[in-house]
Amino acid sequence: MTNLGYIEVKIHDIHPSDFDISHVVELLKNVENLLYPNDRKKRPIISYEVKEGSVRNIFKTDLSQVILVNTTIKNINDTKSIDNIDLTQAKAIENIQEWASKNSLDLEIKSSIKNTNKLEINRNTNFQRSENIWIDSDLYLYGKIISMGGKTNPNLHISTEEHGTVIIQTTEEVLANQSDNRLYKYSGVHVHAKQNIKNGQLDKSDIKLLGFIEYEQSLDDDYLDNLINEASKSWTDIKDADQWLAEIRGLL
Question: I want to staple 196 with a disulfide (CB 3.0 to 4.6 A). Which of 86, 172, 189, 201 is the partner?
Answer without folding.
Answer: 201
